[in-house]
């Protein structure tokens, strides 16, 4: 890029999301400049509005320029990513495919504050961007970059094909978790606060549906329980009452600013496990994209324009819990 070019990114300014200018940096040898066409809107973006960072971490777009040593992408390719942006490459986590846990990682909200996928461009490091499989539309690939990667990572190493999996909540994460768990061969049981969502949950692949107020109606426990949404459920309902089977695993994907108060004696004598899933490391992320493309797993989306007005509409809908199921901002 000859002269530094200014382009818009969107960040929180006094509580609302505003367009602010930033400059495309001189690309490093492994950098890739992606012109954003679509970006998903995640609850984590809302959490970072008060901090003024460039928002967006579920981006998909077209490669417009590459650094001198980039070999994985060429101009015109589709690329996705935005949450996990770098890690050291040398530590035990990086060397074992768990690079998301690298102590030198760069992730959305922790560093790289003027680079986000709510913008005209996103600057990515080539090995932290992901090729979008053919047959997967960019508008559908966008929400997979965080929501899809998070639920796939939660399920793929936890669930065996013949097992029963419980999904708490049917939102951006939950509606993908139902589809992915079903395609992994599991029997899917959904727990929700709203009866309205029963038919859709079944269409996504659930074979049983319970309101959170009637969990005692379940007749056979689930081996894995994935908790989505922004609140923890009453753990006693699931753990003390045996809705989760012995030696079962709880995967909380909700990250409220609250303590996770688990019934200690039940945890011990029933052999419960808790594991987390902060998106996926890169290998799993690529696997997830191929898995979704080959099984026809697509998010149900609502589209908004990628500008201040569109972002305000999307943020409003997400905040009031009315998004069905993932918002996607589309560049004009
Ligand atoms: Zn996210
Ligand atoms: Zn590392």
Features:
332 residues; alpha/beta; seven-stranded mixed β-sheet; six-stranded parallel β-sheet; 9 helices; 17 strands; 25% helix; 29% strand; globular; binds zinc ion; GroES-like protein
Number of H- or I-type helical stretches:
9
Bound molecules: zinc ion
CA-to-CA gap between the ends?
23 Å
Give a short account of the largest sheet: 7 strands, mixed
| Radius of gyration, taken over Cα atoms and rounded to an integer in Å | 20 Å
Helix content: 25-40%
Work out the number of β strands: 17
Mean pLDDT: 95
- SS-derived structural category: alpha/beta
**Low-confidence segments:** none
- Strand fraction equals 25-35%
User: Which shape, going by the Cα principal axes?
Assistant: globular
Give a quick precis of the structure.
By secondary structure, the chain is of the alpha/beta class.
Describe the model.
The strands form 4 sheets. Strands 3, 4, 5, 8, 9, 16 and 17 form a 7-stranded mixed sheet that branches. A 6-stranded parallel sheet has the order 12-11-10-13-14-15. By secondary structure, the chain is of the alpha/beta class. The radius of gyration is 20 Å and the shape is globular. Strand 1 and strand 2 form a beta hairpin. The longest helix has 19 residues, at 138-156. It contains 9 helices and 17 strands. Helix 3 (138-156) crosses helix 4 and helix 3 crosses helix 8. The model has no long low-confidence stretch (mean pLDDT 95). The structure holds zinc ion (2 copies). It comes from Cenococcum geophilum 1.58. This is GroES-like protein.
